[in-house]
Amino acid sequence: MKRIILFGIVIFLLLMVNVFTVVAEDAEEIRLRIGGGQPVEGFTWIESINKYFIPYVDKKLAETDDYKINWIEAWGGTVAKVDECLEAVENGLLDISFVGYVFEPSKLSLNNYSYYVPFNVRLLELDQMVEANMAMYEKYPELNKEFENYRNKLLGLGILESYNFATNFEVKTMDDFQGKKVGGGGSNLAWIKVSGAIPVQSPGTQWYSCVQTGVYDGILGHTLMLDTLKLYEVAPYITLGDFGAVNAGALTINIDYFERLPNEVQLALIEAGEAYAYGNVELEMEKLSIFKDKLEAMENVKLTVLSEEQRNKWVNLLPNLPMQYGQKLDDMGFKGTEMIKSYINFLKEAGADIPRQWFTE
Questions:
Q1: How high does pLDDT run on average in the chain?
Q2: How far apart are CA 116 and CA 320, in angstroms?
Q3: Residue 86 lies in a domain
């Protein structure tokens, strides 16, 4: 009798296991390792992944319940630092990551094009940047191909808001920068130099301490980074001049992994990439508006908007960066000049006021 009861219990447990297995198998679980060099908090291009990209994929797949993503997140450089993300996806350390173009000037030379067209869109008109850059990737498949050379597939663009200054000295005209040391990075060091300032190559992680200790007198950085890093505490003079927004990076996935995924999941990821691009800009404009109000209300911060006269003076003193970079890409065998011209035209078509006629000088 005891054996019969024991046998019955075993059969019941096996049936229960089978029931739970069937329930679990209703939605096939797919693991995706997603991560990058920056933390989620305070970095809009990463925060937008959790706010727009991941929820979009989950919601889309929930329509059929055939598949469910098990997201394994690794932000803040736990798997890959900011300059290692392209390689991390290529080598399969991460399935999905945010790749910053500025950290890959050689491997992603084509995709760095937006850094060489400064003074493009205004602070709260980032939707123009999305439209122009979406048009670029549609017209020039070689932009995607450049990623594919490193087994990365582009999913969505990461547009970052305009660069502006935080300094420990008051700014009324560009002449106020004469002899001052200003931190920055990449191609925007050329933007600093024409003012008479001394440009200093420096990563954002060092900005606060370097201004605080007098290594330099201010920085040129993305506007929301001034808030994230609380730079106004050591550089309380904020100068808004709309020096230029950029297509700063992209959300990518390992091609080999992507091609093994079911069609339904592939489609969800592609659609989510577009939702991410527009969502990121929406989040940035929302935060920019709040940050601007915050600065205006702070007694120990002086917010200055660079006059149109000074802004035009600044842009006209710059070397012809778009033409120079276009020619550099031409020499590398790309349609560089044509691409840069197209980008400027796409910006204008989107409504951007480009203050200098770069290719008619």
A1: 90
A2: 9
A3: yes
Same domain, yes or no, for 218 and 318?
Answer: yes
Is 100 in the same domain as 171? Answer: no
H or E segment and range at residue 61:
helix 54-62
Q: State how far the alpha carbon of 299 is from the alpha carbons of 60, 224, 230, in Å.
A: 47, 19, 15
Of the CA atoms within 13 Å of residue 10, those in its CB half-sphere come to 6
Buried b (16+ CB within 10 A) or exposed e, 63-92: eeeebbbebebbbbeebbebebbbbbbbee
Give the pLDDT mean for 300-325.
Answer: 94
First-to-last alpha carbon distance for the chain, in angstroms, is 99
According to the per-residue pLDDT averaged within each range, which of 132-146, 214-228, 286-300 is highest?
132-146
Query: Tens digit of pLDDT for each residue in 196-245?
Result: 999 998 878 789 999 999 999 999 999 998 999 999 999 999 999 999 99
* Whole-angstrom distance, CA of residue 326 vs CA of residue 335: 8
- Backbone φ and ψ for 238, nearest 5 degrees, come out as -100, 120
Identify the bridge partners of residue 247 per DSSP, sorted by sequence position: 159
Cα dihedral 222, 226, 229, 232, rounded to 10, equals 160
